[in-house]
Amino acid sequence: MSFNTPTKTVLYSIEETIKAYRKLSQYNISSIVPKITIDQALILIIISHSDNTQTEIANLIFKDYASMTRIINLMISKDYLTKTLDKIDKRKAKLKITENGKIIIEKLTPMIKLNRETALKNISYKEQEQLFKILKKITQNCKTIDNEN
Amino acid sequence: MSFNTPTKTVLYSIEETIKAYRKLSQYNISSIVPKITIDQALILIIISHSDNTQTEIANLIFKDYASMTRIINLMISKDYLTKTLDKIDKRKAKLKITENGKIIIEKLTPMIKLNRETALKNISYKEQEQLFKILKKITQNCKTIDNEN
DNA sequence: AGAATATACTTGATATGTCAAGTAATAGTG
DNA sequence: CACTATTACTTGACATATCAAGTATATTCT
């Protein structure tokens, strides 16, 4: 066969893995806090550790700014967060976790940890390092837009 | 810090990598055939190599059946595909590539190959094997739903 | 200060992801 | 053959992804 079906590439294993992980995470998180998404849970936890702006959070979790706006709005409407303007720089948003949001974090934190452990069970530290290195290389390759060659 | 931010896990590198790859692919494909998505291009190529049913294709590329229905409908409306009922089993859909679709495949095939090469540049065969193995392990871990432990 | 840029975020349009519920056709069972 | 279960796909509702265009505020430059 002169042209291997793209699905045979390792790149599709990456897709497969991330989808499996997301599914597991969502399933387990939903069993504790129904209707929250893994993205929303992740964002809650990030905010609880620092007071990043929307844009900074978006960059942390590789999300588009547009998506971020929408996710944040949903989280506000669900009473996980409040948003006020930064008094120094009125372009920026100050995100604060509500009491309700704090309770949710308490509930979810152990499960999120467990999800990671479940996914990485029997993956040695060395393997995780290898994985990390190779993935970073691929990421870099993809970011050098000029593919003259 | 007692609870590492989830974004520090290798699992988020997986997200990062797949997003970078998708971005590169979409960017390059769009330069040749505007308005086609990488998913649609991938599906076109898969159909051109076999006559799988929708469900089978969905499984190949890890897509939900609902998404598949919608993507196929879009592809029909864009004149990439036609769909008829299988005469033997009327539940099944027969997907056929239109002339227009064939031209698009011709145009895109080299670029899709190049995208893969770009992403995997300087990743040795051995590394790809390692990557594949570790990813499969993680995928398996995530699919064993019972995380009693 | 005024103009040009840049930053932080928003909105619209369209595509896809995901769960739940539904339809039509087929297969399996008593 | 009637009944039930399964399969293949669809639809609705909602969340997120992505690009493009837009708004408001800050910053830089002249």
Task: Give a brief outline of the structure.
Chain A has helices spanning 10-30, 38-49, 54-60, 65-77, 99-119, 125-143, and strands at 81-85, 93-97. The first copy, chain A, is mostly helical and 149 residues long.
Rg of chain A computed from alpha carbons, rounded to a whole number of angstroms: 19 Å
The rounded distance between the terminal residues' Cα atoms of chain A is 24 Å
Share of helix among residues of chain A? 55-70%
Q: Please report the two chains with the greatest interface, counting residues with C-beta closer than 8 angstroms to the partner's C-beta.
A: A-B, 57 and 56 residues
User: In terms of quaternary structure, what is this?
Assistant: homodimer
Protein name (chains A, B): HTH marR-type domain-containing protein
GO biological process, one term (chains A, B): response to stress
InterPro entries (chains A, B): HTH_MarR-typ (IPR000835), MarR/SlyA-like (IPR039422), Tscrpt_reg_MarR-type_CS (IPR023187), WH-like_DNA-bd_sf (IPR036388), WH_DNA-bd_sf (IPR036390)
Domain HTH marR-type (chains A, B): 7-140
